[in-house]
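Let us practice reading a record.
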Amino acid sequence: MQGVLAFAVFLWLASSCSCSRMMPWSTMTDYFLENIDYSSGFGNAILSKGTTSFNVMDYRAAGNGQTDDSQAFNKAWKEVCSAITSQEVATLQVPPGKTFLLRPVDFQGPCKANTIHFQLRGTLIAPQSTSWADDALDTWIQFSGVDNLILDGDGKFDGEGSIWWQSCKKKTIFGTFFSCQRPPGALHFHNCNGLRLEGLTLLNSPRSHISINGCKNVSISNLHIIAPEDSPNTDGIDISASSNVKIQDSNIGTGDDCVAINGGSSFINITGVDRGPGHGISIGSLGDGVYDTVQDVHVKNCNLTNTQNGVRIKTFQGGSGFARNISFEHISLDNVRNPIIINQFYQDKSKHSKAILKAAAIQVSHVTYFDIHGTSAIDRAIDLSCDDVVGCSNIVMENIDITSAVPGQNIYGFCNNARGTATSVHPKVSCLS
């Protein structure tokens, strides 16, 4: 009560002074809010009135799916990011039943609150054209430098990717291939430590759906990521230069890698994820003219259905670095091409070939495959195509049982310069003891 009386006296004195000597009202208000003792009853009373929650509709967002709401979201973000609160969390609310059209936006930190909660209940859609590729961002929605960001809810991100894919398709007498400007990704997180993504649905990104770069302590759960099987380069989740990332209990079906773990990443755990269609779970590609490292990656209790690959490690010739301490356990396969594959002769078909230094390669070692079972869509069920010079070492296979998805078809295992052990493995891999 004393705080309330003090504030009343403050307002009376301010209003009774000469206007020429009085600071602007907005400046006075900002000063007061910045100097509140939020541990007092008065401070808590202000917070309880909702000053730490910000609804995009209050910033003139239309939410009709046709009006560009980018400016309203930028204004709301500026407010939530600059909010001073003792409640630890400042929340940006995107209400249900609304569709918001956004051009590329960059939500930048650092923010003042300990935690920023982006609560998505509605649908965000990208423009239905390729013209917004001229914007500076290489992604549709980006979060950068925002620590302890929580992005959750039952809402959707719709990247409207089909117009991009159609513009890329080129038909020749040799078949259909893709050639166009680099499409943008949907969601990009850069230097966001303590990131949490939960419950969201992502649809039809022009390129990768989620990319995580330079982040630590990331938790991803209960996501649904969906794009057509023939959509180009629509990775589900791309991880690079990040550590302590956990992905669990999600469904991913796209036109490219379901999850791709790229250079500079470590301590990645993927559990309880269903995938298909898509290109499976990939380490890499690594070593495309650079020094790349990936270590301590553990994938378990995952189901792969109708994917181009199962569990894959892919590296370029001539690269340098390592991929080590990797495990794939309790993996179920259903009609999967290349169920188990290490490919150290990987080539990106979208790029021109380079002169290759044959004496160099990423060192692949200490890779464990345990309890992998199901069916292969092709006859080569296990493929360990390791570099001729460096090779792969400490490969451990145990309790592997893969049969053909085609009745009566025989399957086999192939290996080149791989060293390790095999116990109860079908089909047999001759170079493993």
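A brief commentary: Residues 2-16 form the longest helix (15 residues).
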